[in-house]
Specification:
The chain is mainly alpha-helical and 446 residues long. It is 49% helix and 10% strand. 45% of the residues are buried.
Length: 446
């Protein structure tokens, strides 16, 4: 069965470009082959048909799980996240686990994390020295890890933090991931990754077995029940906690790195954030995710024939809504490359035109949480600092594993606001700082 057109280079060359110049490759193919087009990336197990047409994206997100399957496309993620992970599960079993995991990220539970996030953001900002350039992405990795430790595990345990950092760091290079998925011997990257996962597991199981009722995601999942009334097994809990780390940490850190990089180049937007309410902040968050999506595609695979963009696709190919290209379509977005949060003030965007969190039954479980985190961190940054870019031109998008982050790390120079102390008193949460907060001062800044 013929597939939509695409570059004729060998898969190894397409993969190299996918790693080294991902956005240039996507733009070039879209301009040359139109919609849809096919990429053959040596690493993925089948050709990838990319789509950007909202009507097609809607059909993909609405497809039954016996026609299009989501998740499980990464051979490295499976052993890390575990067999119970909702990233790996399919069909009814995926939906069952997903239902158990949704409550901690919605409604009342979500609102409770706001103050924790704001406190941790202000702790991080206490370490920013006015006038000294910071590597925004790295700082946001530190901050989002603290947030996830607090919210998911209910602790600031430095041992757990270091074990998570060490393990996740091993998954941030795509060439390394490729090497790990191809060669799984007793020595080399795969073996050291496994050792790091085992150490992390020990600490996670200690935390699970401690049975602390601290309102964390772990505590909430521990009290969740399957349909037959049984609690989640230790292994299920472990897999879902690791899933949240794997899916939630680098994505949010990357988005925040971009947000800081963008705001430094749009002082008018930063000033308006300082003076505005949640509506404008939400619009800024959306515009960051639209113009600089940290994930470029949403993965689905055909289990049966599937029609898209006038093509009948056979079973066994990836059909992937392309977030990056959809967000840049000039027929969907006026001046698509302009950073203009106001475009989102008119109401909710079309869910098949604005797709930073994917869609359908596999839509990002942490979307509301990530939005809250972005909003609270940006609110804190705006209240404390003006931002200046270290050079005028914006940073290019560079691949870091599966995420697209600022090529130079989002270097910005924070400048103190004249009335920063006074503002600070206004925006800091009214509750006293949690005594358990770890001492971050010992970690290198910037
Ligand atoms: C800005 C930050 C984030 C972005 C851009 C993002 C984006 C995405 C995308 C595109 C997907 C795939 C959706 C699909 O296949 O339709 C996804 C899935 C997922 N995300 Fe996020 N995510 C972010 C933050 C988070 C956070 C903070 C968490 C949890 C703490 C999280 C947990 C998950 C989970 C568990 C899935 C798998 C859902 C499933 O298969 O049912 N994400 N995310």
């Amino acid at each position: 069965m013929p597939l939509p057109p695409g570059p004729g280079e060998p898969a190894a060359i397409q993969m190299t470009e996918w790693i080294v110049r991902p956005t240039a490759l996507l733009r070039r193919c879209h301009a040359r082959y139109g919609e849809p087009f096919t990429l053959k990336i040596g690493w993925s197990d089948a050709p990838m048909v990319l789509i950007t047409e909202p009507a097609d994206i809607k059909r993909v997100f609405a497809a039954e799980p016996d026609v299009l399957v989501g998740g499980a496309s990464s051979t490295v993620l499976e052993p890390f996240a575990g067999p119970h992970s909702i990233l790996v599960l399919r069909g009814p079993e995926h939906l069952r686990q997903r239902r158990l995991m949704l409550p901690p990220f919605h409604g009342e539970a979500l609102a409770r994390w706001r103050e924790t996030i704001a406190q941790l953001a202000h702790d991080e900002l206490d370490r920013w020295a006015p006038g000294a350039a910071i590597h925004a992405h790295r700082r946001m990795q530190v901050l989002t890890l603290e947030v996830i430790l607090r919210v998911v595990f209910g602790t600031g345990d430095p041992q757990l933090r270091d074990a998570i950092r060490r393990t996740l760091d091993m998954t941030t290079s795509l060439p390394r991931l490729v090497a790990m998925s191809l060669v799984r011997g007793p020595v080399g990257p795969w073996a050291s990754f496994n050792r790091a996962v085992r150490r992390l597991d020990e600490l996670i199981y200690e935390r699970i077995d401690a049975h602390v009722d601290d309102g964390s995601v772990l505590a909430l999942l521990r009290s969740a029940r399957h349909e037959d009334g049984s609690p989640l097994a230790r292994e299920e809990l472990r897999d879902q906690l690791v899933t949240l780390l794997a899916a939630g940490h680098e994505t949010t850190a990357g988005a925040l790195g971009w947000a800081v990089e963008r705001l430094a180049r749009h002082p008018d937007v930063l000033a308006r954030v300082r003076a505005s309410d949640d509506t404008y902040l939400d619009a800024v968050v959306k515009e960051v995710l639209r113009t600089r999506p940290v994930l470029s595609i949403v993965g689905r695979k055909t289990l049966a024939e599937f029609e898209v963009g006038g093509w009948r696709l056979p079973p066994g190919v990836h059909v992937t809504p392309c977030i990056y290209l959809t967000h840049r379509r000039a027929d969907l977005w006026e001046e698509p490359t302009a950073f203009r949060p106001e475009r989102f003030l008119g109401g909710a965007p079309d869910p098949y035109t604005f797709i930073p969190f994917g869609g359908g039954t596999r839509r990002c479980l942490g979307a509301a949480f990530a939005t809250l985190e972005l909003r609270e961190v940006l609110r804190a940054v705006a209240a404390r600092f003006d931002l200046r870019p270290d050079r005028p031109e914006g940073e290019r998008m560079r691949r870091r594993s599966i995420t697209l982050t600022p090529a130079r790390g989002g270097y910005v120079i924070p400048e103190a606001l004249a009335s920063s102390a006074a503002r600070n008193a206004d925006v800091l949460p009214s509750q006293p700082l949690d005594r358990e907060l770890p001492d971050l001062q010992s970690r290198p800044a910037g």
